[in-house]
Amino acid sequence: MDQRRGRSGKKKNSPEKNDEAQEEFVVKSKGKQQKGTKQTEDNEEKKGVQKIEKQQNIKEVEKKVKQINQAEQKYELGDGKFSTPTIKISSWNINGIRAVTKHEEAVQYLSDNKFDVICLNELKADQIVFDKENLGAKFGKHYFLYLNFCKSKGGYSGVAIASKVKPISVKCDIGVDKHDQEGRTLTAEFEKFYLVSCYVPNAGQKLERLDYRTKEWDVDFQNYLEGLRKKKPTILCGDLNVSHHEIDLANPTGNKKTAGFTQQERDQFSNYLQKGWVDSFRHLHPKEVKYSFFSARNNCRQENKGWRLDYFIINKEASDAIIVSDINLTVHGSDHVPIECEVDLRKL
């Protein structure tokens, strides 16, 4: 047996060694305490971040739910009867209601008493922003305002109808879930006709939505319109995001693979018209060159280098009711200009 070991057989340490061991134990203990404290702090911080994220997610869900509920709100309805034999309708892609209403002449146009109905595309605002900034006040007091906002994200798409007469019914979207998240259609039923304000999806700069646009949206939307016209004459208006013929844009040769003038989009529009619908402007002005959209670049508007993307379409049986269909080039405030039509209700 090793004589330097005690009864337990363990080596005895000197007082100096004992002091060193004690110091080492204290240091290790403090290290563990500090490590434990840091872990606790990290955990608390992580919990705090998770709590904030959870609250943000809840708020985001609540916001979406609120928007959906507001999109399904009970609209102020009436008998849909106009007191005059003819009415005037305007449709305008305003490219953002907050931006357009900074232009005095645009606000004047939106509050003009001469129109019985004004339809708007591309509001680029949600219900919360619209209410907070009191954007409805930009319209004349003689209008009843009906809105459909984008539900999937704020500041995108959205359509509106401002009418002097309360419609019989108002419907947001077309009843197909995959299309109904972006707030692209609003249908108002009046005594003699349906009016559909629409902002058709763009195929995209790289044509990434071309298949969706032509193979899904166009098919389902056209079916929706067919269902309406079986009940009443139907007028479709808005930015339909297609220039149908070469006469409808300034540079057809250089835009054959550009969204709005691809062969697929033009063919789908032809198929739609062939089912018994009439492009009222081209019907009344077979050879007139006039555009409703101008890029903000390269002085396109000043040089009249544009696209006709905005339309009033009516089912063929009622096409004689459209007595005026034109494009108003005098109004500024958007990259689109308003289109206007006059309808003889007696012929519907």
Automatic annotation (TrEMBL):
The active site is at 199, 239 (proton donor/acceptor), 336 (proton acceptor). Signal peptide: none annotated. The record marks 241 as: Transition state stabilizer. Residues 1-53 are annotated as: Disordered. The record marks 310 as: Important for catalytic activity. The record marks 336 as: Interaction with DNA substrate. GO terms for cellular component: nucleus. One of its GO terms (biological process) is base-excision repair. Pfam families: Exo_endo_phos. InterPro entries: AP_endonuc_1, AP_endonuclease_F1_CS, Endo/exonuclease/phosphatase. Belongs to the DNA repair enzymes AP/ExoA family. Probably binds two magnesium or manganese ions per subunit. This is DNA repair nuclease/redox regulator APEX1. PROSITE patterns: AP_NUCLEASE_F1_2 (PS00727), AP_NUCLEASE_F1_4 (PS51435). Residues 1-12 have a biased composition (Basic residues). Keywords: DNA damage, DNA repair, Hydrolase, Magnesium, Manganese, Metal-binding. Residues 91-336 form the Endonuclease/exonuclease/phosphatase domain.
